[in-house]
Amino acid sequence: MIQPEQGVHVPESSDGSPVRWAIIGTANIARWNFLPSLRLAGGIVVTVGSRSRESGRAFLADNDLQADVCSYAEAVGRDDVDAVYVATPNHLHSQWAAAAMEGGKAVLCEKPLGRTPSEVEDLIAVSACTGQPLWEAFAFPFHEQWRFLVEAIADQVVGELGEIQSNFHFLVRDPANIRWDPALGGGALNDVGCYPIHLARLLFGSEPKDAAAVMKVGGRGVDAECQAILDFGSGRRLQFSCGLERWRDTSTRLLGSGGEIRLTDPFHPTAQDTITVIRDGHTMVHRLVPDEPSFTAMLRSICSVVAQRRPAQHLANGDALGTARALAMVRTRFVEWP
Known about the structure:
alpha/beta; Dihydrodipicolinate Reductase, domain 2; 6-stranded parallel beta sheet; 9 helices; 16 strands; globular
């Protein structure tokens, strides 16, 4: 099984053992974000649920995992698993997150939590019924950079926050990638447009009242690019752009009545990313991100919750439904580019 890095504090469950994880699905985000972060957070992987034994074994070999491979159903039902990370294609998220909670497991589910608000409502109900915690895999609220941002907005460091301008683009070259398939819940809005929306909801502390959006169709009929404006009332708005057809861009600006805050990457920041505060002709640049993968702080927190060492933060029960409703609103406002 995967072992924690040397010198890393290992959160222990109530019986004194490390928190044990199952991974459901072998997506790249599990390879690139989840596994490196879990090594630092101190959890262990005991099994990988895969639809194909062959692809599951390849995942183990590629990532140097001493775990076993089983089906999705077997993984969520195992007695030696404390928590499940759901990294399946989007259309399977709600099904297997629900099955894992019903199997007595804490769940971290990739976004989007569900394809519709009703799917998200159903998952929140399962969490309440089973008593199992549920998180949607937005890592940024766990970061020190985010705490700095929330305090700066609350203290009106740049005055009253009125507008957020945020991008999330990256390049998907492979035409067979699941993001190009509408039947699998693909498209830019589901994959990365959810990030600016979630960020804006949390910073404004309210829900959008209306939206206008344009989209470019690509792949097998998904939104390859999307630009939207969401009205949060009282003159506050989010303008965002997302897509799968250009080089990575996560630049974000928070515009206040007395200045602005610029972030190179509010979503998955590295140690090289910055927050720049501009006010009264003065510019201050901050680097607040430790040199560790972006899921690390989130997984440290979740492991500690599962080990009964701390109360849960940023649960999907309080955060996810508003984002799902906002995504649905944007979809209903789509106008296709000529």
